[in-house]
């Protein structure tokens, strides 16, 4: 799940909470007036849990609205595991990032007088996204979520109604779904491997040992184009994870442990 911000609509809304199922890629987008944790919790329960079921895990960035007490309590009540992305690693939340790009591109094509009413066009845009085959799975998100394709206006021309007895239909349907889920899972793993190869290109393969003193990379803030590349405060590596992810903490041992990628840190001597 993720928030993206659009230009303020005529009714004052400018935030969109995007929720995407990791396997099927089925996505829902909800315009909101703020990004508060209480708003996130209400949308999750009302518009996802009670309509599509309770997920096993919620994944988001490390924003306070996703990592605070409210969402932790929600996860406890519904027995949901909570995970989060690594800072400055948007590919960790790639499920929603892809939809965000599509949404921004499509809304940008609206006529100027219609752009202020973008919340009215969001349901159609989301439906279109879910009814389009996804490159990672080869199937539409709608089909993988519900087991059948959405009924479209063109279907009325061809009268694609169920034929034959119910038992035969259900047996064929189960066979199709089993094959689809197997193929989708294989495609997802293949695409994930391809993305990992791309991410690893150009990355400094030299690992950093636990206990090493390192510097943390700065990221450009607004117009600060002339800022130093690295924070002057030294950090120490306290954990090493897979996929070039490290846990770091201030060198004096104070403060929380932060997870960062290899490209965000360097040996202090460099």
TrEMBL record:
<dbReference type="GO" id="GO:0003676">
    <property type="term" value="F:nucleic acid binding"/>
</dbReference>
<dbReference type="InterPro" id="IPR001584">
    <property type="entry name" value="Integrase_cat-core"/>
</dbReference>
<dbReference type="InterPro" id="IPR012337">
    <property type="entry name" value="RNaseH-like_sf"/>
</dbReference>
<dbReference type="InterPro" id="IPR050951">
    <property type="entry name" value="Retrovirus_Pol_polyprotein"/>
</dbReference>
<protein>
    <recommendedName>
        <fullName>Integrase catalytic domain-containing protein</fullName>
    </recommendedName>
</protein>
<dbReference type="Pfam" id="PF00665">
    <property type="entry name" value="rve"/>
</dbReference>
<dbReference type="InterPro" id="IPR036397">
    <property type="entry name" value="RNaseH_sf"/>
</dbReference>
<feature type="domain" description="Integrase catalytic">
    <location>
        <begin position="1"/>
        <end position="149"/>
    </location>
</feature>
<dbReference type="GO" id="GO:0015074">
    <property type="term" value="P:DNA integration"/>
</dbReference>
């Amino acid at each position: 799940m993720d928030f993206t911000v659009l230009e303020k609509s005529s009714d004052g809304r400018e935030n969109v909470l995007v929720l995407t199922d990791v396997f099927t890629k089925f996505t829902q987008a909800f315009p909101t007036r703020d990004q508060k944790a209480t708003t996130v919790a209400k949308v999750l329960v009302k518009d996802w849990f009670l309509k599509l079921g309770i997920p096993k895990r919620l994944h988001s960035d490390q924003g306070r609205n996703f990592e605070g007490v409210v969402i932790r309590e929600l996860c406890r009540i519904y027995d949901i595991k909570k995970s989060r992305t690594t800072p400055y690693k948007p590919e960790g939340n790639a499920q929603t990032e892809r939809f965000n790009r599509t949404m921004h591109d499509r809304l940008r094509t609206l006529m100027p007088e219609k752009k202020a009413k973008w919340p009215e066009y969001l349901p159609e845009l989301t439906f279109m996204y879910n009814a389009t085959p996804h490159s990672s799975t080869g199937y539409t998100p709608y089909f993988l979520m519900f087991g059948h394709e959405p009924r479209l206006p063109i279907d009325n021309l061809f009268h694609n109604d169920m034929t034959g007895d119910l038992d035969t239909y259900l047996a064929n349907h189960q066979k199709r779904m089993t094959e689809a889920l197997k193929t989708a899972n294989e495609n997802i793993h293949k695409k994930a491997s391809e993305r990992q190869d791309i991410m690893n290109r150009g990355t400094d393969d030299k690992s950093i040992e636990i206990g090493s003193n390192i510097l943390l990379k700065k990221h450009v803030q607004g117009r600060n184009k002339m800022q130093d590349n690295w924070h002057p405060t030294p950090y120490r590596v306290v954990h090493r994870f897979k996929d070039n992810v490290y846990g770091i903490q201030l060198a004096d041992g104070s403060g929380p442990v932060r997870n960062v990628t290899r490209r965000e840190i360097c040996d202090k001597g460099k």
